[in-house]
Amino acid sequence: MNRDFQAPGRSPVFAREAAAATSHPLATSAALETLLAGGNAVDAAIAAVAVQCVVEPHMTGVGGDCFAIVMEPDGRLTGFNGSGAAPRAATPDKLAELGVAEITDTSPHAVTVPGAVRAWETLHKAHGAAPFKSLFKRAIHYARDGFPVAPRVAHDWVKNLDKLRADPVSAARYLIKGEAPETGTILKYPHLADTLQKIAEGGADAFYSGDIAKDIVSALQSRGGLMTEDDLAACHTTAVSPVLREYKGHTVAELPPNGQGIIALIMLGILEKFDLQGFDPLGPERFHLEMEAARLAYAVRNRFVTDPGHMDVCHTRLIGSDYIDQLAREVSLDKRMASVPENALVPQTDTVYLTVVDKDGLSVSFINSLFSDFGSGIVAPDSGVLLHCRGKSFRAAPGHANSIDGGKRPMHTIIPATVLKGGAPFLSFGVMGGQYQACGHAHLLTNIIDYGMDVQAAIDFPRMFFNMDTHALEAEKLVPPSTLEGLKALGHTVTPASGPIGGSQAIMIDRARHLLTAGSDPRKDGHAAGY
User: Is residue 462 packed enough to be buried (19+ CB in 10 Å), middle (13-18) or exposed (0-12)?
Assistant: First the structure.
């Protein structure tokens, strides 16, 4: 597809040596600065995400979780699960005793152990090249000396006034006289700057023990939380083998549960059963198939995906050809499924994403999240650590795949991904957007593989997702009216999306031509860059 240069948009970034794509311009600059100083892709990714923990506080932070896939020049893949577990005392019985029937995003029980900082250090020890301390220079600078609020960040901030006003510490740290900062406002976070300095000098142990850990535990326990310093000290990152599945001559790699990456593979497997290429990429048939595949795949997620030690079925079973065939038989080209049949699901036998590729061909697909905007809204006052709310994915009651339990990791929406072609690196990519992410992976990959779009066009392309409660389809404004009418004729309820759906970054790797092609989502403030 050729770009219309009379229409708004941006070209993909072409580079020969290295490239970085993030959702914030200051983070992209930090990544390039690290690469030009001799750091590799992993170093650059850590430097970039540390900046984002300062300049995109509603999306990510040191109090969140992290996942990554490192792809080496020869196609070898290593996954890193940097998600934290529930406190040991957090059992269904204990929550019932406390009168907690539902875990909301602002509940102290939604705060699982933040795994990001340990993951950064583990990733660096395995693949980094530059000194760990050097990677926090820009983040510390912006936290201590100030940074300007970017337009999309300001836009999102306003929507979270009630959450921030509800907690006096959050209101003091993240609001200005009770209001959200405007675009261009210069903000400083001295407490967070000190914490980043301690992490830079003392590594992850400086975060998971000592004054910072005490501050986090105190903040949670004062609100009725069950976190202890022992829970934080036990935090570890797990190295995992990515799960692979073929899609039309490409090998797609996702991380195994407790993330939802296999749901993207299930969606792609279902879509592969249909002649997707024969449909208009903006037409009702394409979106009908994508949404029906998503409804099935997400039902599988909700039924099965959790901490792998607690799953009823091995995740490899869920991407097997016979199970994919079983699911695909539920999809009709002529009409919407009235509901997702429960018997079809049983096998018969708010987030930042960034990617970097360096001059040696090492690439990293990297995602770091607080889950909801501003996470739990709980700030540890002395350290400035804003804590995530990943535990709201848990059920408070027993008997569900994702019921809370001591030391158990919750189901995660954040998923990095990579793609190989002919066994060689082809694409490092990810999609932000909470629940949408697995669907977003399938959407972006079919844009590239089935419809021949370049990475920027594939990222820009209009999106749609279903409401997780009502199952009505929510469409971005650039989806044509004819497509919306076509979907309604197939039995779908379609409504306008309340805002842009997710965000994405991607870098395509062509080793034969020594060429990198990078794209970054215009739905966010960031951009891709390279040299």
Answer: middle
Q: What is the pLDDT of residue 39?
A: 98
- Digit-coded pLDDT (tens) for 98-136: 999 999 999 999 999 999 999 999 999 999 999 999 999
User: Does an H or E element contain 519, and which?
Assistant: strand 515-520
- What span, in angstroms and rounded, lies between the C-alpha atoms of 387 and 225? 12
CA–chain centroid gap for 321, Å, is 27
Can you tell me the distance from the alpha carbon of 133 to that of 200, in angstroms, rounded to the nearest whole number? 4
Are the C-beta atoms of residues 501 and 15 closer than 8 Å to each other?
A: no
Can you list the alpha helix ranges (DSSP code H) found in 128-203?
137-145, 151-158, 161-165, 168-174, 190-202
Q: Supply 322's token pair.
A: 């016979």
In this structure, the strands spanning 238-240 and 77-82 are antiparallel
Angle between helices 481-489 and 284-304 (to 10 degrees): 60
For residue 455, pLDDT beyond 50: yes
Can you tell me the distance from the alpha carbon of 488 to that of 75, in angstroms, rounded to the nearest whole number? 43
Length reported for the chain: 531
Question: 184: helix, coil or strand?
Answer: coil
What does DSSP say about strands 503-510 and 515-520: parallel, antiparallel, or unpaired? antiparallel
Encoding tokens for residue 184?
A: 């261009």
How far is 245 from 267, CA to CA, in rounded Å?
11
Put simply, whether the predicted model's pTM sits higher than 0.90 gets the answer: yes
d(CA 477, CA 5): 21
pLDDT at residue 396 is higher than 80: yes
Report how far residue 92's alpha carbon sits from residue 109's, in angstroms, rounded to the nearest whole number: 11
The pair of structure tokens assigned to 97 is 């005793």
Nearest to 58 by CA among 120, 150, 194, 135: 150
Q: In the 3-class helix/strand/coil scheme, how is 67-80 assigned residue by residue?
A: EEEEECCCCCEEEE
Q: Helix (H, G, I), strand (E, B), or coil: what is residue 475?
A: strand
Q: Output the CA torsion 369→370→374→379 (10° steps).
A: -130
Confidence of residue 344 (pLDDT cuts 50, 70, 90): low
CA distance 450 to 461: 14
Active-site residues, by number, are 351
Question: Hey, which residues does 427 pair with through a beta bridge?
Answer: 419, 508
- Residue 137 identity: K
Judge whether 410 and 111 are in contact, CB under 8 Å: no
Nearest-Å Rg of the Cα atoms of the chain is: 22
| Helices 437-449 & 261-271 angle (0-180, nearest 10) | 40
CA distance 79 to 69: 4
Check pLDDT > 80 for residue 312. Answer: no
Q: Which residues pair with 319 in a beta bridge?
A: none
pLDDT at 334: 94
Confidence band for 348, pLDDT divided at 50, 70 and 90 = very low
Token pair of 371, please? 């889950």
Name the residue type at position 124.
H
Q: At what angle do helices 41-55 and 137-145 cross, to 10 degrees?
A: 10
Helices (H) and strands (E) in the chain, counts: 19, 21
Cα–Cα distance for residue pair 21/459, rounded to 1 Å? 12
